[in-house]
Structure formats: C-alpha cells, structure tokens
Amino acid sequence: MSSHPKYRADIPLHIAIIMDGNGRWAQARHRPRVFGHQAGVKTVRRIVEDAADIGIKYLTLYSFSTENWTRPKAEIAALFQLLKKYVEDDLDTLNDNNVRVRIIGSREGLKPDLLKVIKKVEKTTEHNTEFFLNIAFNYGGRDEIIRAVKSLVQGGFAPADIDEKLLERFLDTTDIPDPDLVIRTSGEQRISNFLSWQAAYAEFVFTDVLWPDFSRSDLETAISEFQRRDRRFGNLSDTAEVA
C-alpha cells in the first residue's frame, strides 16, 4: 500500500457510504443493471483498500436495503449472488489483512447458502483488529430499531431501565462507533433509511459521481470536506459568543 496522505488529525474514524448509481452507470452504457452492480463490486474492493490505506478504521457500505425487495426478482437474485461471490472470493485476502467483516441487517428472507457464507466470513474474521468492514445487507434503519425494541421487550427490561446505551446494545452495530461521515454517491441527497439511529450527528457529503466511478480521489475529497466542518454535537463552537 502507498503512504498515507497528509490529512489533519481529525480524519474520520468511521465512514459509511450509500453506494448509489450502479443502475444508471450501466444504463448509460446500454448495459443491464446487473452489469452496473458487477462494476460496483470492483469499486468496493478498491475503496476498502483505499480507506484502510488512508487510515480509516471502520467502513460501512449500504449494499441492499429492506426496501430493495420491490426490485425485479432477477436483479435481487443477482445482488445476493454478488454478495456471496464477493465474500467467498475475498475472504482469504480480507482475513490475511486482519480485516473484520460483519454483515448487518435482518437475516429474514436470506437463503441458507447465503446465510452459511455470512456465518463463515463473520466467524473467520471475528478476532481481526486492523480494519472493520461492515456490509449493510437486507438492512433498514427503521427495521433495525424495531428489531432492537422487540429484543428489549423479549428481554423483560422495564421501561425505566431503557436508555440510549441499552438500546444500542441491541442494534446491529453494537460495539461499532457511530459514523463520523456519511457519503452518498450519484447525486441523490437523502439517507434512504440508512443508519437512522447511528447517523444522528454524522456529517454528510453528497457527490454526483456514480458508485462504479467512485475513486480514491473522490474519497479524499469527501474527507477534506469533512475536515472543514465544525462538529459541535449540539454545543456552541469554541469561537461562538455565549449569550
């Protein structure tokens, strides 16, 4: 890997990316949408390596939402197959590079062969500590919160015992720090039910670049934009006058 760029100390610990634009990228080339998703997987490989090289510790990628079930069945099947193939083909490399992989989202509706692969990659990499790759698959922020609340109820917790820290223990992202920066590609400016709880104080960067074209340079540009932000988390900035 190349040397790290000279970023300031406020480089984001955790970046989350809404990988959008695969279909439009393919259509612009008069190819089927699946062709765009295949190209998007190649970008995933590049960006995972680039993020680790830059010094990012956690990377969460939004690959299939709970709302994506409304897409054509052939496209859904292709997306499932692409996740399975990516995990199977890259597992050894990811493990050799000390990358921990977690698949966040509901397991409902996933076929046994895919569940087997998910279990294998998570088990194989569970003790890795150099880089944390989270793939949001069959994921929805609202669905995640509902599942967490159901777990609290089933656990018999009293209402008085429930606070933010307790609820977070039952989220898919337990033990994962909240994202500092959320990037969305393709020009859309919405979060699409992604990390609804966790992104409460994240910075957002929207880019017109379609996901298959997203490069290290685009990632660095987003990080530079993040570094220019004044993150106050509801407080006054150091330079603000106090009334």
What are the salient characteristics of this protein?
243 residues, 6-stranded parallel β-sheet, disordered N terminus, 6 strands, 7 helices, Undecaprenyl pyrophosphate synthetase
Decide which structural class fits the backbone: alpha/beta
User: Strand-and-helix sequence, N→C?
Assistant: EHHEHEHEHHEEH
Oligomer: single chain
Number of strands: 6
Mean pLDDT: 91
How many domains, in number, for the residues? Answer: 1
- Proportion of helical residues: 25-40%
Q: Please summarize the sheet with the most strands.
A: 6 strands, parallel
Strand order of the largest sheet: 3-4-2-1-5-6
The CATH class, by name, is Alpha Beta
Within the CATH hierarchy, at the fold level, what is the topology?
Undecaprenyl pyrophosphate synthetase
The whole-angstrom Rg is 19 Å
Globular, elongated, flat, extended or rod-shaped: what is the shape? globular
Low-pLDDT windows of residues: 1-8
Annotation field: number of helices: 7
Q: Please report which band the strand proportion falls in: under 5%, 5-15%, 15-25%, 25-35%, 35-45% or over 45%.
A: 5-15%
Indicate the CATH architecture: 3-Layer(aba) Sandwich
Task: Report how far the terminal alpha carbons are from each other.
Answer: 50 Å
